[in-house]
Batch of 3 targets.
Target 1
Amino acid sequence: MDQPNKSYLLKGVTGSGKTEVFLQIVEENLKNGKDSIILVPEISLTPQTIERFQGRFNQKIAILHSRLTQKEKFQQWRMIKNGDVKIVVGARSAIFAPFKNLGAIIIDEEHDKSYISSQDPKFHTDELALFRQKYNKATLIFASATPSIKTMTKALNGQNNLVELKNRVNGKMPKVEIVDMREELKKSNYSMISSSLYDKILEKLKIKNK
């Protein structure tokens, strides 16, 4: 999937290893001296994504999203422009990152509506990504467990190369427990979460604090 000037739809269930594919593509780009843009739909996901990439590459990573101050944006922009970083992680605004040697654009959870900007400047992130991919002869990855109709149609028509990850890495789906909250009310539990969920959260917090 690291072939230049090609676009892919990476369709895979949660836990199927999509992030590992991202890491390998970025790793190949770094070896070739090329830059990578990784887009995530929610700003809250950005620290988690940065942690994964920093843990793998021990690289300085630029961050771009709308909640940065003007000063912070300028600092990040300058790092990219000066070639001080090879990886950018951010929300849709990161598609404008001024890389001179762009090798890959990865759009995670590409179906998310936050990739469409309804305010000025109005834009669709996927269309800008396609333009930059062709201009830079880069690799473009659309990734999702539930692709948008637009992206899936392009894949079925051969405009995007479809790559499917049908199984989870450990081969098992997570255990799901359904709790009848009416029964919780009978037990005088008037909170928004069940007793079993509360116990599990407490258990995890205790483990984290050890």
Note: The chain has two domains: 7-165, 177-209.
Target 2
Amino acid sequence: MLKIRRIKIFDNYNSAYYLNIGVWLLIIQFLSGCAYKKTVAKYHPLDADTIIKSIKERNKNIRDLRGIANIQIISDNLNERIREAIVINGNSLIRLELLNIIGQPSLIMVSDSKTVTIYNISENSFYHGDASPETIAKITGIYMTPHDIINLITGKQITTDFKITDLSFKNESRQYMLKVQSVDSDIYEEIWLDSANLSATEVKRFDDKGMAISFTSFSDYRKVGSHFFPFRIKMLIPSQGLSMSIEYVYVDLNRGVEESLFDLIIPEDAEAVEAVELR
């Protein structure tokens, strides 16, 4: 029996036809892509005055804070994890409450940046004295003033008189690097800021010989009211062999804080002790 074979005479033609269409589409896409790249606006970095103004505006806008944070402190002879309730009013008033496992305060510290009072509730003992970094180090293991602590946990930058020594834009990371120096000392800082919203991402402090004093990073920015706030802060102090991380679980800004919270009333039968005994 004779079998008839059907020949598709258009197969080769159709293949060539569709191949030509594909080639032309690729060419058009390539050319349009090139044209698009040519029309992208070039990024124009901001000047130093604009950046400084933004930093100062942010500092001014954080008037008070209430928060709860998990804090870890690691050094050569210390590895401590604690949870603290934090209350701040302005640039000088701070109240820290060390919370126990059921969320109640076991130790309270208040300071006006000149004096500091600490009350150990469980042992009914207290300390009252000068709010020097030496005193704070005896209590917390960290050589900082209460004012330094306020700036750290609120993410504030450039709170003293300074002069600008350098400003550059790092295209690969899309960040600004602002270098400033204190007018009262030879200490200088490199402040790295996200170009999208000028939020600080890292601050490096150096002495006059270029030796590192501290490295601090700010991340996990979240919207709190009308402000972006860093919920994760990490600090490294090489000379002390110390690192500290702060992770907020709750933050509230600018809701008003009563100054009476910073008047710590000590029971009459409480025992006065040295600062180091409260650790």
Note: The first helix runs from residue 11 to 39.
Target 3
Amino acid sequence: IVADEHVDTEFGVGALGVTPAHSIADFEIAERHDLPIKQIINEYGKMMVGMEGVKGLKVEQAREKVVDWLRVKALLIETEDIIQNVGTAERTGAVIEPLPKLQWWIDVNKKIRLPYSNINGVNAGDEVSLKELMLKVVDSGQVNILPDRFEKIYTHWIENLRDWNISRQIWFGHRVPVWYRNGEIYVDVQAPEGEGWVQDEDTLDTWFSSGLWTFSTLGWPNTDANDFNTYHPTDVLETGHDIIFFWVARMILMTTYLVGEVPFKTVYLHGLVRDAQGRKMSKSLGNIVDPVALIKKYGTDALRMALIVGNGPGNDVNLDENKIKAYKKFANKIWNITRFVLSETEDINITSGYTSRDEELIVVQRTLIDEVTTEMNEFKYYLVSEKLYHYVWHTFADEILEESKGIFTNGSPEDVASRKRFLRESLITILKVLHPFMPFITEEIWQEVKSDNERDILMTALWPTL
């Protein structure tokens, strides 16, 4: 009998039977008190020990059998229903029974000497742990995480990081690069020479493989490769906030250790796409929305806008079909704007001057472009898309085009020429700023409206400056 702070005296009978081989919490208790670790459940979830009639049973069956035996022997004092946290398999719902198994690990606290460093605050030859490297690049601002509230979450997680288990007992994946022969162990990326070597059957954790991505695709370990020098470190990594610890942290760990620099400068985290009621999509709930079906119904651009507008970094988004439908109407509005502008500006004079009224409109447009350019550089895509939506629909279509109809009917030749030039150039500007959000419709329209001095493909056109 041992005393340990992990045991809650107010829970159940206030005592805990310790099974170190089959409970993570019990394993930690055993380590603290130097208790023996004996495995009693095999890989098939059956009892390896026990009296006659118990050995070989599934765990749940064995529990019932033991309780029945205690009852028959008049040794059972009391039974009580207690709610417990039990891990279950996501796909089958079966109870997960921890087992002790020999695994490969990465020691995140061991001091290692960096042969090369382009990391702020760490010089080549310094001794530093992987955990310290992972913390330093974010603390120093060499890696920025957006939204910044996730920097605190990242830091808290890394500060409490334990050694990383990198081996898996599955068939698909990178094999662990370890070979055995007569008690010898050989570790290298290449197989050893000679006969009799047997490779470890385990595979590497998928996040170990994914963690190599930022540099392994660019010619590494040849750090003089053209692709490596051109693209590493990358500017922005965009990924979901739910894998910041699995992927983002692993890439930082791998790259700082193996390359001596950060993998990326900015991490932009998006949220999860949920259903219209805010529930996580899952097969069990039957609420998975097929994006291909939505694209066929409403168009790709409408779906893109519905996912971007109002969806700040790190925030989950509820996928409401009515919102997608609204942006399909916006796409139709852009087509209608284009038809009107093209039909009214066939005889445009690009050298004509602007009236004072059109100069006022240009100032408004210039202010908008300045704002959204700054916000694009600040990764505020949710805000830019919303501003462009309101300008195109409510200002340009509802106000400017309606005003233009009167000018084309009753205006002076100077007014008409000025307005035609303004409309044509405004349409070109609108297509450019909307292209990151609605690339398909804007690219198609671009082929009809681009001037001789513009790029053939909108995707390569220069961002507007007024």
Note: The longest strand covers residues 234-240.
